[in-house]
Specification:
By secondary structure, this protein is mainly beta. Among the domains are: 36 residues, no CATH class; 90 residues, Immunoglobulin-like, CATH 2.60.40.2080. The chain is 11% helix and 40% strand. It has 2 helices and 17 strands. The longest helix has 22 residues. It is rod-shaped, with a radius of gyration of 38 Å. 10% of the residues are buried. About 7% of the residues have low confidence.
Length: 255
Amino acid sequence: MKTPTKIYLLLTFLFIGSCAFAQNVKIAESSGGTVISNAGGADIPHSSSILDIRSTNKGILLPRMTTANRDAISSPLAGLLVYNTSTNQFNYYGGSSWQVASFGNQWGVNGSILYHSGKVGIGTSTMTNANTFLTVNGNATISGTLTVNNGKGILYNSSGDSQLKYYTLQFTQLMGIGPGIISGELSIPFSESFTNPPKVYVGDMVSFSCDVGQPYYLQLVIYGCTTTGCKARIINTGTDNLACNITWNIICIGN
């Protein structure tokens, strides 16, 4: 075969390959940037982009590497993005360390802080409950004011892992009673419910008024507590008749 014929055939193959490439992917460069597309459209990239990649049936693959490969990158620039095949996560370099780029339902970790969709975990690698917005595994120091449960508060249970509830109420009783007498059975209902019967304590007298005698001889005794209330009796520990209207503070602690 003569040399001109060989050159002609080579150019023909190159032209055919070029046409085939052009039919699949178009690369267009302009002063505004570059367009790579197999979906048609204008040859000018979007005004906010230096590189505009378009397709209706294909994606784009960023460099894929293990954690060891990523850490071996010399002098990474802030904003560098890779896909970590060791963790199946996108990583970006934040200027001083590699961070997890969080997309959709993927959790992100920054040091010992786990964050995702408004939920935060500190000192933990997993959130204990999907409905928990903050999980702290360890000691926490708060220098300001901490408002819990709209100001209702919470107690620390040192003897178990169940959450404690602190609940107060006021109990008022009009009582006329003789010396050394125990009243009939009374009822103290709870407006807050408990899972188990709480510990119930009688607090101070909020207010009192007596037609006969002094209120200090009247003793409120609580017993038979359930998850919804307690039974009670009043004892006149004095030596005189008493007729008083008294309000006591009642404290309930339980779960």
